[in-house]
Amino acid sequence: RSHLFHWVSLQTPFVNDGIPLQAPIAAGFGSHEGGGKPECVCVASSPQDDGLAQQQQQQWQQREARAATAHQNDWAIWDDFMSDTYGVNWEDEDSSRNLDAARCMQWAVYRKDVIEDKNDPEASEDDRGQNGCISALLREAILGSLDKKTFEWEEKVKQYSVLQTGPANGGDDISVKVRTWNPLLCQAIAQRSRSVCQVRVYGVDEFAKLRKSAAMPNRMGPVDFSDNIAKSIEKGPLVFFSPGAGKSRGSSFSTTSDGNFKIKLGIRKDMTMNEPKHFLKILVGTSKAPSMLQHLERNTNSLLNRYLSLIKLRALGQDKYALLMMDASYGEDARIQKMKRSIPLMYTRYDLKGKSRDQDEKQKTSKQFTLLNGDFKEREKNYLDLTKDQCRKLRQAVQADTAFLEGHNLIDYSLFVGVTHGESNGCKATAGEPFCFEATKSLTYTFCLLDYINNFNFAKGIENIFKGGKFTNYGQGINNFISQICPGRLEWYESTEFRMCCAIIVFVLTVAAGGAGLWYWRNRTSPVKQPVHQVPWQQGPAPRMPQYRDQDDFGIAHGQPQGYIRQQGMNGGRGFA
Predict the structure, then answer these.
(1) Please, where are the H alpha helices in 315-438?
(2) 165, 178, 354, 480: which is deepest, by most CB within 10 A?
(3) Which of 24-28, 343-347, 360-364 shows the lowest per-residue confidence on average (mean pLDDT)?
């Protein structure tokens, strides 16, 4: 007698009566084929049970049809929701600027067919969906912080106690304005995750001032950068990447679709470090140190990376802080990447530190996006090919910034150096020196100070002790490092070759001049003495004149010449005739 085997997958959800809602059903003869232990239930029945099995199969099919109809109705409602929120083309891969929200919806509600991400083709559906949710929520939060769109937020002022200054000094409590709201996309995310979904932006008024041109590099650019930020945010989803420079736990980076602005995710807030609070202290300022706005307005050449918004994102069971910041390369990185398609150029990024890092430490081969001190030492010979005047400008800017950071007790920041090899039209597209230096026609540098939100707390103090004082006088260590790598290039007139040529020329001219002088001394003649013109009373003894007697007529009668005569009758003196 043949046996009929029915199997039902155990991986699908069950309804109340124990019958699978969407269980794949198969009937056939023989045994289960395939390697390993099959995840199924095998039921053997006799031919008399065939009628019961067919009836049960029909019931399952009917329930499948009803469930599919219900899902289709629900999906139609969600389609209308997304069309109203993000436009009718919200899931069109060619025209939609909200593919991140589309991926989030497909992952959270449809749970299938998540749109591929061209920037990360190897990402799984879960990664694409969750990144889409984070990207869409962050973009909405940034637009809310810019006042470009008004959401149903709750706005209030929060106070923070700054423990670093101590209560003995009056307790420099700081207060900032915050906005909190629940984005509409949270309704879709709730279909997959029941955790809280919320966004919050901090320091609304302070960041609005930092986005003005008065706080920008060399005060260049538009009067208000809020419009530029909004345009970059609205162009499309955020692009996630890993720079590979820092060692912060749980931190990651993303950039706007046009590459003009960066977002750092995973700002630390735990038992050992509270980076959001430290940054708010810098933002507002204390009695011991000025605010960031004051420092940037006084030092327009400050190399501090401009931070433009602080956001807290609560979604998918996680609380993440994010910082919106300007590009550390001032747009050079994105510009060079575009030019590389037609011109042979190379742009290299370095994250450099002073004595707090091993100067021979190199970046891992799997993280070559941003390199470290050891790579700079090997590739650039630990040297910046700048003139003495350019190095002086760089050192002065860094010294002012390190003094400001030291006033806020901040450490562990880095000097970002971007090196462009090749003819790239120099620094014309940037704010100029000291942010960008054109060393030669084919060599350009960009500089920026990054990650300056770590303070020297108890945990860092313990680390400092066990690691040989790596954080002691941190700012001075950065200044010493820059002086070491940027002593100033010798000019052409300071080179050894030029000085040797000058010495040879001077020696030849000296020998020639000495020989000419010797020849003149040996061949010189005595000068001709010219007679001295004297008046009569300065002349010597008068010439002997003829003597005349008293009866003589002084020679007049005899035709004697007249002139000076010596007369006998005039006491032997001189007389005149």
Answers:
(1) 332-339, 373-379, 388-407
(2) 354
(3) 24-28
